[in-house]
Amino acid sequence: MTPSLRSVLSLGCDNPRLKKDRVARKDPSEGSMRKARIAILRVEMESIYFADALYWHQTEPPLAAKAEYYRRQSRLKEIRREVCELGK
């Protein structure tokens, strides 16, 4: 994951009191951003499932369709891994 703007801007801060305050307070929008990202990933998963259902209903899928299917399966693995990490 990319670092937040707040953490990037405070990298040069050597004041221990400010560091303590930064650790004690969490950004309230972080949780909502995580939930929004999970929702977006779930929508993408649904579209992949729908596309896969269409693929499996074909009797003789063309080679390009097979390639797209395997690409979607790879993306599905990435999405599942990201959702798992966001859920922590």
Q: What are the salient characteristics of this protein?
A:
4 helices; 88 residues; mainly alpha; disordered N terminus
Description:
With 88 residues, the chain is mainly alpha-helical. It has one domain (5-86). 76% of the residues lie in helices and 0% in strands. The chain has helices at residues 5-9, 16-24, 28-56, 63-86. Helix 3 (28-56) runs antiparallel to helix 4 (63-86). The chain starts with a helix and ends with a helix. The model is unreliable at 1-15 and 17-24 (pLDDT under 50).
Mean pLDDT: 78
Q: What structural class is derived from the secondary structure elements?
A: mainly alpha
Structural Rg: 20 Å
Count of alpha/pi helices: 4
Number of domains: 1
Q: Give the H and E element order.
A: HHHH
Distance N to C terminus: 13 Å
Share of helix among residues?
over 70%
| Percent range for β-strand residues | under 5%
Give the overall form.
elongated
Residue runs with pLDDT of under 50 for 5 or more positions: 1-15, 17-24
Q: How would a textbook summarize the main sheet?
A: none
Number of strand segments: 0
Give the secondary structure arrangement, pairings included:
Blueprint: H1 5-9, H2 16-24, H3 28-56, H4 63-86
How would you summarize this macromolecular structure in one to three sentences?
The chain is mostly helical and 88 residues long. It contains 4 helices and no strands.
